[in-house]
């Protein structure tokens, strides 16, 4: 009962295999009431140690990143990776990151925020509207809409990238923010999640009551539907935010002008700079910029844990 | 039971309640319209255009001509394409099982209730998922490097000389490590969420029957999360076939080891944006898309059959 529907929205085109996906199932909230620990199992040191190794694997690179942001370029090359160098260059690195090249990093940060705001925000809004329609209305062609969306999702992003680029280039959209934002607007997974969620969250009687009171469809949606959909909306917003924030392939093919780059593309251009003839290596800035890039997402993950978990739990199917 | 089969649910509940009132109403289109319009623009139109492109060829002399299925024939005989496909297949055969087994192990360990500090474990292992592929690759790329990488440090400190992770022989494994690092936590969470919804009465019953922990895992837990296992496998296969970001970014550090036709996705990208062979690029992408869909479909069928 769960779908192989990936969020292969162009936003997350390739290479992030399961990016912001998970199957899906007609259940949004985890029945977390039942803890299934028969009796109270003994804690196992061996198991803890083994799992601890995986934790180390996950955290050591992040630790390396944090430590490396405190080093100068020379320190990076000359000191042990997992310990601090004599010079504590963190503040220096941060300020240089923001001022290097006339502060282009700030520009990339703002671009990313714009892409995330309009792309993920728009994707969430479209998914909420669409999910509401699928859940609460019967309309001609409804089944076809569903079948086409699910079917198209199975098409790997690769097949879409080149033709999308060529189309957009004919429409004069390439090298503008629109080329990144428009494809980000579609999140089939978000649509599916909202459809499932709206089915459960909005009692049809409530909509009927609003209509009897003379509310139009638009007003019914905004005043009755939307508030009830809020929890599902946050989940979808998180998924689409991650997909947009991490997006690399789409901006890579669509954008030439560094002024429109998102952080991911910008950081990589700084990194590639060292490899070009006469380019100045700025690895300390690449590293500091990387940390600045991931902090907001890590914060979002930690603060909104519950939503993520419930979003993923939607993928864990009950029979 | 738990089979990835979305349309099955499509028939269910939603239509019924309001059906009487709105059966032939177009009101619903007002709400789904915006999604449908953008979807048509960024999904359907490119697919159609892609198929169209693949039937033509752009030549210096004679311009664009209709060539039927010639491009497809060329793709099927294209050694570069098959080599890249072989590479991602090898990648898939090793990386996906390793990643999923680690994820499954951690999920089972978390679910067993036998760990100290469970919540910390869960969130730490999931954390790399929040790291963009670009940052993950840059980070690991630096660590792999002999310049200021950890590998270089270890060599210096211990007086050994580890093989270069960015050499031609090892770079695919190094990419596999990056991808594993990024997605182990995500898959772990999928498995873990699936394990959490198993009614715990089943375990009690099994324990009364004298089943040990291992038996409970193999007889109850694994069958119960089959759906999640199948989905995670399919996503990982699709992900492997679409491998792009990691090799592209790592190429700056390993020019010789990673060629521009390293993966099928990289190959179509290079064809299109370096070679300006848009028609052929679209063809390769379609062929790759079809292969991916077929394999994903087969895995899904197999997963379903065993579950039935």
The interface involving the most residues is between: A-B, 146 and 141 residues
Name the CATH homologous superfamily of the largest domain in chain B: MetI-like
Helix content of chain A: 55-70%
Shape of chain A: globular
Largest sheet of chain A: none
CATH topology of the domain at 10-16 and 114-313 in chain A: MetI-like fold
Summarize the structure.
The complex is a heterodimer of chains A (319) and B (308). Chain A has 319 residues and is mostly helical. Chain A is built from 13 helices and no strands.
Account of the 3D structure:
The complex is a heterodimer of chains A (319) and B (308). By secondary structure, chain A is mainly α. Chain A contains 13 helices and no strands. In chain A, α3 runs antiparallel to α9 (217-245). Helix content of chain B is 71%, strand content 3%. The termini of chain B are close together. Chain B has 2 domains: 30-68, no CATH class; 78-307, Orthogonal Bundle (MetI-like fold).
Note the main attributes of this structure:
heterodimer, A: about 325 residues, mainly alpha, MetI-like fold, 13 helices, about 0% strand, globular, disordered C terminus, B: about 300 residues, two-stranded antiparallel sheet, 15 helices, about 70% helix
Write the layout of secondary structure elements.
The complex is a heterodimer of chains A (319) and B (308).
Chain A: H1 45-68, H2 73-78, H3 90-136, H4 142-153, H5 157-170, H6 177-184, H7 188-201, H8 204-212, H9 217-245, H10 249-254, H11 263-273, H12 283-303, H13 305-313
Chain B: H1 6-10, H2 15-22, H3 27-54, E1 56-59, E2 63-66, H4 70-76, H5 79-111, H6 118-126, H7 133-144, H8 150-158, H9 171-196, H10 201-208, H11 213-224, H12 226-241, H13 245-250, H14 264-273, H15 278-307
Antiparallel strand pairs in B: 1-2
């Amino acid at each position: 009962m769960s779908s192989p529907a990936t969020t292969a929205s162009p936003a997350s085109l390739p290479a992030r295999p399961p990016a912001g996906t998970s199957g899906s199932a007609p259940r949004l909230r985890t029945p977390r009431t039942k803890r299934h620990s028969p009796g109270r199992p003994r804690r196992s040191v061996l198991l803890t140690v083994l799992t601890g190794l995986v934790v180390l694997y996950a955290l050591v690179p992040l630790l390396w990143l944090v430590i490396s942001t405190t080093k100068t370029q020379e320190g990076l090359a000359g000191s042990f990776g997992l310990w601090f160098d004599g010079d504590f260059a963190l503040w220096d690195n941060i300020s240089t990151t923001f001022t290097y090249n006339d502060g282009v990093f700030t520009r990339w940060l703002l671009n990313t925020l714009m892409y995330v705001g309009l792309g993920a925000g728009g994707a969430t809004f479209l998914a909420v509207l669409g999910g509401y329609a699928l859940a609460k209305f019967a309309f001609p062609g409804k089944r076809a809409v569903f079948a086409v969306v699910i079917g198209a999702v199975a098409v790997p992003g690769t097949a879409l990238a080149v033709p999308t680029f060529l189309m957009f280039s004919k429409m004069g959209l390439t090298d503008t923010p629109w080329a990144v934002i428009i494809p980000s607007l579609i999140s089939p997974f978000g649509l599916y999640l909202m459809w499932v969620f709206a089915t459960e969250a909005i009692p049809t009687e409530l909509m009927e009551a609003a209509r009897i009171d003379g509310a139009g469809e638009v007003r019914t949606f905004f005043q009755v539907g939307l508030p009830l959909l809020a929890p599902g909306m946050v989940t979808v917003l998180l998924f689409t935010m991650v997909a947009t924030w991490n997006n690399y392939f789409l901006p890579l093919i669509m954008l030439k002008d560094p002024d429109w780059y998102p952080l991911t593309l910008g950081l990589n251009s700084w990194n590639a700079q060292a490899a070009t003839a006469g380019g100045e290596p700025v690895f300390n800035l690449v590293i500091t910029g990387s940390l600045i890039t991931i902090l907001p997402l890590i914060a979002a993950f930690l603060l909104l844990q519950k939503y993520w978990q419930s979003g993923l739990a939607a993928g864990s199917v009950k029979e | 039971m738990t089979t990835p089969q979305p349309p099955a649910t499509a028939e269910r509940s939603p239509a019924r309640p309001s059906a009487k009132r709105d059966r032939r109403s177009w009101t619903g289109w007002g709400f789904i319209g915006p999604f449908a319009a953008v979807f048509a623009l960024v999904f359907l139109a490119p697919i159609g255009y892609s198929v169209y492109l693949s039937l033509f060829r752009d030549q210096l002399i004679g311009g664009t001509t209709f060539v039927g299925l010639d491009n497809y024939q060329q793709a099927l005989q294209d050694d570069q394409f098959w080599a890249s496909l072989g590479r991602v297949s090898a990648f898939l055969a090793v990386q996906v099982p390793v990643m999923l087994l680690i994820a499954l192990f951690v999920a089972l360990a978390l679910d067993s209730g036998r760990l100290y500090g469970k919540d910390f474990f869960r969130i730490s292992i999931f954390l790399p998922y929040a790291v963009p592929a670009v940052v993950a690759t840059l980070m690991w790329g630096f660590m792999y490097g002999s310049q200021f990488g950890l590998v270089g440090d270890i060599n210096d400190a211990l007086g050994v000389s580890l093989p270069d992770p960015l050499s031609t022989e090892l770079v695919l494994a190094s990419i596999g490590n990056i991808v594993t690092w990024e997605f182990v936590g995500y898959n772990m969470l999928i498995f873990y969420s699936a394990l959490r919804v198993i009614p715990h009465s089943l375990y009690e019953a099994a324990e009364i029957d004298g089943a040990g922990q291992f038996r409970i895992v193999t007889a109850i837990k694994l069958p119960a999360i089959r759906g999640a296992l199948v989905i995670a496998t399919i996503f990982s296969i699709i992900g492997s076939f679409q491998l792009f970001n990691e090799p592209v970014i790592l190429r700056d550090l390993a020019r010789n080891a990673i060629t521009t036709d390293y993966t099928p996705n990289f190959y179509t990208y290079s064809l299109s944006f370096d070679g300006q062979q848009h028609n052929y690029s679209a063809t390769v992408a379609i062929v790759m898309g079809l292969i991916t869909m077929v394999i994903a479909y087969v895995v899904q069928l197999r997963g379903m059959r065993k579950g039935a």
